[in-house]
Amino acid sequence: MSTSCFDLVVRNARAATASDVFTTDIGIRDSRIVQLGSGLPEGAREIDARGRVVTPGGIDAHCHLDQPSSSPVKMADDFNSGTISAACGGTTTVIPFAAQQKGHSLRAAVEDYHRRADGVSHIDYAFHLIVSDPTPEVLKVELPELIGKGYTSFKAYMTYDDLKLDDGQILDVLDVAKRHGAIAMLHAENSDCIEWLTQRLESMGRHAPRFHAYSRPMLVEREATHRAIALAELVAVPILIVHVSGREAIEQIRWGRAHGLNIFAETCPQYLFLTAEDLGIDDSYTGAKCVCSPPPRDKANQEFIWNGLRDGLFTVFSSDHAPFNFEGDEGKHPQGKEVSFRHIPNGIPGLETRMPLLYSEGVLKGRISLEKFVELTATGPAKTYGLHPRKGAICIGADADLVIWDEREVTIRNGSLHHAVDYTPYEGMRLGAWPACTLLRGEVLWDGESYVGSRHRGKFIVAGRPSILPDVRAS
Ligand code: DUC
Ligand code: ZN
Ligand code: ZN
């Protein structure tokens, strides 16, 4: 009986990394990549990837799973359905949010979130924190302690009454990020402007979903983006602006960078493939399906986002999966009614479609290179959130998280997706690729037709210092 030195060899891969595309066999042992090269000895198992692109497993660095909401609203996906769905679309690591509730401790949020994920997740996961109540205890004790334990990123909101921080509070949390080596993610929309516009729209009887976009024009995102950059400049700390929707926020980020500031940015599929018209061109309620914040803009803004993906403005491409059903009163019909736009839960599903959409519309249509695709969907998120090079890389020592791509025609149908949400905003869209196989640490989770993974394989990953932060030795 021969004993192989590999548990698995992925043979003849056209391996794509953030810097190169090359043909190689990938030798895997004990969940990790242990050898790259041609003509590797036979493995205990073999997968022939001849003619196929193989990329690192995707990292969805902005998604919401089983995040508590105020009753009756409830997310449709928990860590079980959400992570199966992610795996079937080529994602092997998710970073959702442990959200502090005002008046409660941050530590309690993390403990609660572990109870929701541990033993349930099918793929690996780290947590971002959401800081909504930066008390002296949170700033001096809890946040530094949690950063030290591997929660090295947190989100701060400039809008939403139950989450938002004022400028002084944002300065306080940025200062903690600077001193303890974390990256702060900012949701940049001006809360007072949104409230003022919302009240005006409501007073004119304008309640339909499409007025959500009118209540959050680009100006409110532009102003808050500029303010977030100014606050970061004052503290002298890098920040990342999440879910950038179009030209005006991009211009602010370019301005910050031109002034030597370390401003990073994320965008999402909804800003490439949806427009404000998807929220309705009349007062019909189906537009509620595409209510998310910031709202999708227009075709011209989609082009600004593509340019930013191409030229390095964006480091991270995430789904911002926020899974609310359209039917039923737990989702987009709270209280079972067609409610005014201000009460429609914000968010759209997108975990499973994120990677195929960008591969198909970006790589196959010549808008971005394969290397850029890998950078945006895997390597960039891994570096930004302290998971690199264990995650987001095809290199010796990395976890064997891989996607083998099948360049075939696929029509997106919600019935074929694996999330628990009753719709997809991309219904009927025709793509040119879908994963033929998703591997997590050398185990097949998705074989191109079915989910074949076993439950509970997902592990919590302790995040390190984000590698996009300045070197500690330099400070
Ligand atoms: N906007 C957010 O900020 N989070 C969840 C979903 C959304 O639309
Ligand atoms: Zn947000
Ligand atoms: Zn979000």
Question: How would you describe this structure to a colleague?
Answer:
With 475 residues, the chain is α/β, with parallel strands linked by helices. It has a domain at 58-384: Metal-dependent hydrolases (TIM Barrel, Alpha-Beta Barrel). It contains twelve helices and 20 strands. Helix 3 (136-148) runs parallel beside helix 4, helix 4 (167-180) packs across helix 7 (218-235) and helix 7 packs parallel to helix 8. The longest helix is centred in the middle third of the chain and has 18 residues, at 218-235. The chain starts with 7 loop residues before the first strand and ends in a 29-residue tail after the last strand. The model has no long low-confidence stretch (mean pLDDT 97). Bound molecules: dihydropyrimidine-2,4(1H,3H)-dione (DUC) and zinc ion (ZN) (2 copies). One zinc ion is lined by residues 187, 242-243.
CATH topology of the domain at 58-384: TIM Barrel
Please tell me the CATH architecture of the domain at 58-384 by its name.
Alpha-Beta Barrel
**What would you report as the Rg, rounded to the nearest angstrom?**
22 Å
**Structural shape:** globular
C-alpha end-to-end distance: 57 Å
Key words describing this protein structure:
475 residues, TIM Barrel, eight-stranded mixed sheet, seven-stranded parallel sheet, globular, binds dihydropyrimidine-2,4(1H,3H)-dione
Describe this structure in a few short sentences.
This protein has 475 residues and is α/β, with parallel strands linked by helices. Helices cover 29% and strands 18% of the residues. A hairpin with a 2-residue loop joins strand 19 and strand 20.
